[in-house]
Amino acid sequence: MTALSTLDRPAGEDSIPARGPVRRLSSWLHRHRGARLAGLLSAPLLWLLVAYLGSLAVLFVSALWTVNSFTGDLVREPTFANFRTILTEAVYRTVTLRSLGVAAAVTVIDVLIALPMAFFMAKVASPRSRRLLVIAILTPLWASYLVKAYAWRVMLANGGPVDWLFGGAGNGPGYGLVATVLVLSYLWLPYMILPIYAGLERLPDSLLEASADLGARGGRTVRSVVLPMIVPSVIAGSIFTFSLSLGDYITVQIVGGKTQLIGNLVYANIGAANNLPFSAALATIPVLIMVGYLVAVRRSGALEEL
Amino acid sequence: MTLSRGARWLLRGAMAVGLAFVYVPLAIVLINSFNADRTFAWPPPRWTTDWWLRAWENAGAREALWTSTKAGLGATAVALLLGTLVAFAVQRYRFFGRDAVSLLVVLPIALPGIVTGIALDTAFRSLIEPLGVGKGLFSVIVGHATFCVVVVYNNVLARLRRLGGNLEEASADLGADTFQTFRYVTFPLLRSALFAGGLLAFALSFDEIIVTTFTAGPGVQTLPIWIFNNLFRPNQAPVINVVAAVLIVLSIVPIYLAQRVSDTAAGGRL
């Protein structure tokens, strides 16, 4: 293209303002703040409200239905029968408490492992190794969930590496509740390390120096300065570890042995038993727990850390 | 921070043990894919590369890989569009219900996957299927996109917060209209955040199994579902080992790409 042809080119969208419909729309949008906002929000809200909240609403409504035990057909008459069953039969209480226990244990284990690692990464390691360590923590996050659960199935197999480490077949934990907690902690560990690391990185070193200048030793500084500052990060991480553990049924099937969590019951009732309403009623348990948790931590600023 | 030598060594030790905890299982899978023995005998008695050839020729695995790719691309496209729109609305405007909107975006990953899965399944069964539309790849994409919006949203929001609005104001002062400003100023500044968010969204979708189980039609098998279906078949174990090993090796690719384009070592926010 020659210089001349560039000069000859009519006023295009690139350089000189045109007075076309685009320009008019642009200035109209500029004047109408509400229209801009509506344009931005309508598509995503339509999707999230219709596809997601709509589905959740259908879920809650169908939790009030029942299934005719002879024909297997849905009976679309509202009744609290499913919830009554869940509240009265001991097995559901046991499974709910076990699921809560597993989710809590996984969260605590991940916090205990993640804190020193994130602290080392953010405050001790050199900038160069810091970057490498972040990559090292992130890479397994991209490896498939199933692959990692499967890796532990291999690790924990009878006579596998873990047994071998403990000195022979049958000496390791094998498959079961302990294995489930262990593997879930493994799977969600990066989700805890990363927010804590991000929180610690934002924590200014001068604050730690000030604490030392005022006479606090390392332990005291960690207790009185570091920990209070990273509470939102820990809570943000715990939303992942807790929620992901609460809903899991795949890992339980892979390494859990005979262990049952809420997820398994939901899955079994929708699959083998073909009792969708009862599954829906069971699924409201983790929803209530998580919504309660989210509401409880809302003011901590954790949701902005996600 | 002034740490004693002992404390430093303790932290270094914790880091090393933690990294070993993270990487040893993955290494075991890699090693096991060369294990000639069909069972999990440890340490492996003999070595072979046969399984790698067998896995390469496995039609089911290949087809599942292709399905996963299509679902991932579809979900990522939807998530990029919706996530960017919400991020702009939440960052640039103050409006009634702003907090509710940001909570709504987070909710699909904050609630357990099984809830999202069963909710979409129920809605499909009772509302969409009676209209004659069955579950298929489309319903998988809808399900995946719903929880992928948040990662794009987070990445774009973080970038917008850091950018502020000065450059766009300058662009407007120089006579550019809204669309020109977006095309020549805002979009180039957002590009790497969009890339990081899109990459994360694709990875989330590619890896998702619980929501997929509930939203996939009978003929739709993504890679995780294929792996899971074959996991407990003893004669498939060697092929599964290889597919798992490949996925571990491939996990380096997104990290590498994110490193190339993004200034954050993390390559984006979750």
Percent helix range of chain A: over 70%
Query: What's the architecture of the largest domain in chain A, going by CATH?
Result: Orthogonal Bundle
Spell out the CATH superfamily of chain B.
Answer: MetI-like
The oligomerization state is heterodimer
As a whole number of angstroms, the C-alpha radius of gyration of chain A is: 27 Å
Shape category of chain B:
globular
CATH topology of chain B: MetI-like fold
InterPro entries (chain B): Bact_Polyamine_Transport, MetI-like, MetI-like_sf
Domain ABC transmembrane type-1 (chain B): 65-258
Transmembrane segments (chain B): 9-31, 71-90, 102-124, 136-156, 193-217, 237-257
Pfam family, one (chain B): BPD_transp_1
Structural descriptors:
heterodimer, A: 306 residues, mainly alpha, MetI-like fold, two-stranded antiparallel sheet, disordered N terminus, B: 270 residues, 12 helices, globular
In short:
Chain B: InterPro entries: Bact_Polyamine_Transport (IPR051789), MetI-like (IPR000515), MetI-like_sf (IPR035906). Chain A has 306 residues and is mainly α. Chain A has 14 helices and two strands, in the order αααββααααααααααα.
Descriptive account of the structure:
Chain A: This is Putative spermidine/putrescine transport system permease protein. Chain A: Pfam families: BPD_transp_1. Chain A: Keywords: Cell membrane, Membrane, Transmembrane, Transmembrane helix, Transport. Chain A: The chain crosses the membrane at residues 37-65, 100-120, 132-152, 172-194, 225-246, 276-296. Chain A: Residues 96-297 form the ABC transmembrane type-1 domain. The complex is a heterodimer of chains A (306) and B (270). With 306 residues, chain A is an all-alpha fold. Chain A contains 14 helices and two strands; from the N terminus they run αααββααααααααααα. Chain A has helices at residues 3-8, 21-31, 33-62, 81-88, 90-124, 127-142, 145-156, 161-165, 177-202, 205-213, 218-247, 250-255, 262-270, 276-297, and strands at residues 66-67, 74-75. Chain A has a two-stranded antiparallel ribbon with strand order 1-2. In chain A, strand 1 (66-67) and strand 2 (74-75) form a beta hairpin. The longest helix of chain A is centred in the middle third of the chain and has 35 residues, at 90-124. Chain A is globular and about 75 Å long. Chain B has a single domain (61-266), classed as MetI-like fold. Chain B is built from twelve helices and no strands. Chain B has helices at residues 5-32, 50-56, 59-92, 98-110, 113-128, 137-163, 166-173, 178-207, 210-215, 223-231, 237-250, 252-261. In chain B, helix 2 (50-56) packs across helix 11. The radius of gyration of chain B is 23 Å and the shape is globular. Chains A and B meet through helix 2, helix 3, helix 5, helix 6 and helix 7 of A and helix 1, helix 3, helix 4, helix 5 and helix 6 of B.
